[in-house]
Amino acid sequence: MGGWRDMPVEALEQQYSPSRWSPRLDSEAVIQAHLEATAAGTQRARAGAQTSLHVPYGDGDREKLDIYFPAEPAGAFPALVYIHGGYWQCLSKDESGFAAPPLVSQGVAVVAVGYDIAPKGHMDAMVLQVRRSLAFLVRRYSGIRGLYLCGHSAGAHLAAMVLATDWTEYGVVPDIKGAVLVSGVYDLEPILHTYVNDALNMSREVAQRNSPMLCVPSAAPVSCEVLVAVAQHDSPEFRRQSQEYGQALRAAGWSVSLLDLAGVDHFDIIEKLSEESYVLTQVILNMISRA
User: Fold this and answer.
1) How confident is the model at residue 10 (pLDDT cuts 50, 70, 90)?
2) pLDDT (0 to 100) of residue 290
3) How many Å apart are CA 183 and CA 150, to the nearest integer?
4) I want to staple 25 with a disulfide (CB 3.0 to 4.6 A). Which of 30, 53, 180, 268 is the partner?
5) Residue 236 confidence (pLDDT)
6) What's this model's pTM, rounded to 2 decimal places?
7) DSSP structure string for 67-82
């Protein structure tokens, strides 16, 4: 059969250590550069946009949103909801506004979502928090016309879980017109056998019920377009996961495209969203303009 189940633990851990696959920098340096780039980009975004920061969508310390409003909102406006990565155990919304400048200048709001990371947060709770944040956004901001999810790494997993939401219990159905899933993990079972689960402490049952691969909605929404993006220098396992999740969505009738981005790794694939000329920035703007 082959695949991840046959890998020695050391090989599996390497596959699920994105920082070990970057040709730019060594493992520690690429993570440090990522923290610095996203933090600096967020500071620039906050300085240059109209914002509402730390908007609570619940009672928890991290249950807050940062909202970057369009430069000239003409009545209703679309919103890109950004869900940060960090392997469900680091980063926050406070480094998650770096993608705002090219979008707000084109009339798109950007919303950075905070959620409880491990060890305080556990997987079921994180998924629920992100879902609740979307429901809150729809109720609170009637000016939003169309939501677009964008998640990176662990955030792409959480965004994919949002696509699998049964919204009946939330009393509202967000108008999700698109999702951009960047270098994500869509089957959590391999993670159980790596260091990543030390902080998450997931059981097999928790991993299965929170694996987007295992809960692809069979009723695909007509108006939602999904882009699954992966980096040339993501690990083979990350690349496999993206390809297989995209195929599973397509088989269920979803409108899906797969974008394999050359010349980038797991980190700069998302950092470059601060640049208007970056191909993924342009793809997002085109997706929104088509809706």
Assistant:
1) very high
2) 86
3) 11
4) 30
5) 98
6) 0.97
7) EEE-SS--SSEEEEEE
Residue 1 above 60 pLDDT?
A: no
Tokens, residue 215? 């809960």
Closest CA to 116 of 106, 126, 103, 104: 126
C-beta separation of 112 from 66 below 8 A: yes
Q: Is the pLDDT of residue 72 over 80?
A: no
What amino acid occupies position 134? L
What amino acid positions are annotated as catalytic residues? 153, 234, 266
Q: Per-residue pLDDT tens for 27-37?
A: 999 999 999 99
- With tokens 């709770």, the residue in question is 125
SS (H, E, C) 104-150: HCCCCEEEEECCCCCCCCCHHHHHHHHHHHHHHHHHHCCCEEEEEEE
pLDDT at 73 over 70: no
Contact at 8 Å (CB) between 287 and 178?
yes
Using alpha carbons, list the distances in angstroms from residue 170 to 80, 116, 274: 20, 20, 33
Please, which residues bridge with residue 181 across strands? Answer: 151, 228
Pull the structure tokens for residue 158: 């959480």
